[in-house]
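Dock pyridoxal-5'-phosphate; give full complex structure.
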Amino acid sequence: MSDYRIETKCIQSGYTPKNGEPRVIPIYQSTTFKYENSDAMGKLFDLEDSGYFYTRLQNPTNDAVAAKICDMEGGVAAMLTSSGQAANFYAIMNIAEAGDHIICSSAVYGGTYNLYAHTIRKMGISATFVDPDASEDELNAAFQENTKAVVGETIANPGLNVLDIEKFAKVAHAHGVPLIIDNTFATPINCRPFEWGADIVTHSTTKYMDGHATAVGGCIVDSGNFDWDAHADKFPGLTTPDETYHGLVYTERFGKGAYITKATSQMMRDLGSIQSPQNAFLLNLGLETLHLRMPRHCENAVNAAKFLQAHDKVAWVNCPSLEGDKYYDLAQKYMPNGTCGVITFGVKGGRDACVKMMDALKMIAIVTHVADSRSCVLHPASHTHRQMNEQELLEAGVQPDLIRFSVGTENIEDIIDDLKQALECV
Ligand SMILES: *Cc1c(COP(=O)(O)O)cnc(C)c1O
């Protein structure tokens, strides 16, 4: 980890050109890499030497960008993935297998819910979903002999529940398993979950990190803090020989780099969800201004929330940075400088009124996205979460009249003008 402050890390970390080299990370648009002799390449296949040979495993552009995100989060190793979904999938599959179990906050992104509730279940890994506000006792009660991880989101998409990371970490560690935090909405500008005890962080870099809605991508970062060897019986994949690499043991050979090395050399080798170097380049451009954009997103979000709260056609507003919000105290603890640009609200008159209001917006677009510079809205009950029944919706913190509003970085007056005229149409 560098000693730079977070703003400097956004710009400087991950890539330091040597004499005469390009100032900006080049796009290594190459599937493969050349070696002088057969033995040199053989050593790479045995993980004896580190180096590039095939972009499905590693690529210099991707590694530089992963190293930047790693430094921003304060971790020891990181890898990029093709999407946030791939990151959340690999983060679990890297330490769990058929017969295992995970605990997940019920307030998570709809795609993550489907992944953990249905898809990994078909692979033999079951999940128990817990209330994001669960007490320590309730969390303890969710553990089983075969539990391998606890998972949650810093700020849940779209429930905007702020997770008590310290509490979740304490309980996870008491049971000898890591806490995995999806830090997509907060970004390391506003919260660095490792500082509160989380062990692994995941990102959908598609959101604020890219920030311009140009490149789908994901990232997994390891804090290096979880002691896999201390719980060796639970994590044989990391602590016993890997026959596909002549019996090497990841924790023995790679120490704090064990988790990410295994994720690269097994998950990425076999499942192949690499981020394209072109997308990694775009992601890096986004990262360079993340520290400038996040405060503006947060400021606009609070001002939009205040406007909506005072409007007589609006039923309710959630914005964790706004005093009076259910999560205000937790937000102040974990994200005193701001949470994110996403807020949620309901229009009086329920589902139909919400749809009517959204259809009347002129600048603010209806899109399946959040967290880019352009303001946009989405109605989760009709869109991202439409597969869920009413009960599942409520458990995920999604009221049927909830509009997810991703407040962009435009002039706040223009944002409010658009909201105002659309509310008049309801
Ligand atoms: C969007 C999102 C994901 C999924 O990421 P993709 O890049 O779309 O695959 C995961 N977690 C959170 C919190 C998200 O917002």
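Observed: DSSP finds 16 helices and twelve strands in the chain.
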